[in-house]
Sequence to fold (813 residues):
Amino acid sequence: LLEAPKFPKDAQKVLWDLMDRTTFMVASVTELHTYVYSPMTMTGPAIKKVCASERHSTDSPIVLINGTVSCQTAGGSVSTLVLDSHSQIADERDDPRPINPPQQFRQALALGRLEEAAQYCEAQGPDQAMAAELLKRSMEMLDVQVAMRAATMAGDVGMTIALGKLVSVEDKNLLAGSMAMFVGDYSLAQDLLLSSSRPVAALEMRADLMQWEPAIRLAETLDPQRIPASCLQYADQLQALSEYESALERYQQAMQSHFTASGREVQVNLSTEHVNLCKAGMARMYIKMGNTTKGFQIAVECGDAVCIECATIMESMKQYADAALLYEKGKNYEKAATLYITKLKDIKAATPLLAKVSTPKLHVKFAEAKEKQGQYREAAEAYERGKDHNSVVRLYLQHLNEPQKACSIVRTTRSVEGAADIAKFCEGQGDFRTAIEFLIVAKENQKAAELAQAHDLMDSYAHFMHNDGTPQEYVAMAQYYETKQQPEKAAEFYERAGKYPQALKLFLSVGDRCVEKAIEVVGLARNEVLTNTLVDYLMGEHDSAPKDPKFIYKLYTALGNYRQAARTAVLIARQEMQELGNYKVAHKMLYDMYRDLDSGNIPVPRELEETLMLLHSYILVKVLVKQGDHEAAARMLIRAAKNISKFPKHLVPILTSTVIECQRANLKKTSFEYASMLMRPEYRPQIAEAYKKKIESIVRKPTKQEDDEPVTPCPYCAMKSPCSTLDCPQCKNHVPYCIATGLRMVANDWTHCPSCHFPALFSKFKALIDSEGSCPMCEEQIQAASIHKVENPEEYLNRAAKRLETDDDEKKG
Fold:
């Protein structure tokens, strides 16, 4: 039997609700009392009083239906009354006040109508407080489904997952114990779980709560195998609470693999990890309790990590000697060496460890200790490992008498302090040149200048100053050299000071030897007056002796006037070709100018490009003949012969070579044409005797037939034209030429030189590099592996076409 709480003493009648079998009403003289019966809760069946409602004492309750009481009045009629416990949820409300949803939820919850309460809660929307009330009540009544809904509404993901694991639990005690655990009633939970089909859950609960003492007591009867693990964790907990003696006892207990529990002999297989953790704990506790010897021994048995941990404890206890040894055993050589040096002053013990230490500060401390002992060599080495270069310099100067090494260090580190020490030392030794060098490194330029002037070492001062001086210092040096009648040096320092007019004047006063330096000054100044002054000098306005045109070219280049420089380069190249026959010199000048213009995205003049192409074609002949490609060599010579006026210095040899190569390439008709030209009276005497008879024979017995020149498609429009022609008759584009053969490029056999980026036929260029090793255009060594075929040369073709259009537009303008 269950006792109804607060049952009225003047009770007259009890009525069960016909619609809700868990609700009943007790009628007393003046009130109607509402009760709820819950057949299943965490604590078992229960009766709970909800509330009391007023009644007319003359009315007699007859029946209760869903909170509405039907009563017989004194006159014999029937009246109805809604209980206060159902005022918001009864079918027939007589409350004039509007419906209050939160009140509806609370009345349903109080009456144990969990499903109805959940619906009210969901209808109300997100309400953490209501969801928490529903969650608590549903867990008390062991309704897992509603509890999960409530946890979800409350946003408690962890509780939702935990409740989900109870859906299939049929054991009432196991379910009730789990619910009691969730609401925090751990004593009740333990009692219920112990009464369930899975009593070990009580042990697991205490372990999860880290309540190790009750957990160990439960383990003695439920699962003795868990006692060592629980003891270990309990020991860790006691250690954190500074209860070292109790912790040591538990660590020792955790080490036992054979013991008695609840009168039974128990044998446990302890893992190596478990044993090591126990030993580590025992080592810590022994040390904490003052038994460092025992703790030290156990720590060494446990390995590096435990040694370091115990060493840290000993260090905090100021047990530096043992701490250092344990750090060393644990291979933390840095900490061990630190203790030996800073705390124990045991330099001998620290010495073998320093080879394994990388911290600069530690090496410096070791060095300081060695220096105090007078062991300067070892101190210097340690300072150097610690990167304290100033101290190394000081020792080399003051104690080791090795100034050369000190100088070498400061030249590398540029240390101001070290440089000042060396300067002072060298000045004392009378080595003023070295003193000047290091005074400049020490930023004491004024003192260095005074020392240089005093000892006539301004050349050394200037050498060491280099570009590190101020404009005022450079001017002072320039004025010094002017007084010494050394205009070139004076000009150099005026240039560094930015005094370009003075620099130019002095360079020109020196003469042709300093023309290039004068050009550099004008290029830096970008001053029209200075430019005109230099141009007048180069044109011979001062001495009626015009200077080498190369200087005009270099001047335009220095001024950034690349178009004018290009025109000048062409003129100089023509001079080299026509007057001197220096084809390679002319080729290099034009190539360099081409690269300068191209790298600056400046249009290359057509004249420069064509002259370079013509020179390159002629230079290629030797390479092609060497490779046995006589037809390509003949085509290049024909190209040169068609422009023979540009090769007056070697007119007859070029025509002779053309005749011979055309014969080898079976170009009989072309060979006859140039042989006939050589038979002219002005050329015939100049023909080499070795070829004269052969050429005369070709003219006497001519063959005027030859095969047409092979054709290749234009890379722009695909129209086929002779392979040596570079202008397409259809699209009017200038077709790029191959730097390996001189022939026109084709789109499906395209590559670039990895160095100069000029185009070449992939197959021909690769073969040339395999045999010669260098590019015929830039003369750089090329690795065959760096040559790659270009699948689509469109970008290069567009750029070449645009470059030519720009140059043509400029000519028209």
Notes: Residues 606-627 form the longest helix (22 residues). The chain has a mean pLDDT of 91. The radius of gyration is 53 Å.
